[in-house]
Design a protein that fits this description.
single chain, mainly alpha, 0% strand
Length: 54
């Protein structure tokens, strides 16, 4: 089975960003785009790292 890391990385950035943004809306806080992007990238890097350790 082939796993394309760029697709995994981009998909994780997108999904993490959506989840963080939705959480910010639910708890009614200001959503800073840069912080959400940085957190999404950290989460995506963790997901890619998990693939290598498996």
């Amino acid at each position: 089975m082939t796993i394309y890391l760029d697709i995994v990385f981009l998909e994780n950035i997108l999904m993490n960003g959506i989840i963080l943004y939705a959480t910010g809306i639910v708890i009614k806080t200001k959503c800073n785009f840069f912080k959400i992007l940085l957190s999404s990238i950290c989460g995506a890097l963790y997901a890619v790292r998990y693939i290598f350790n498996k």
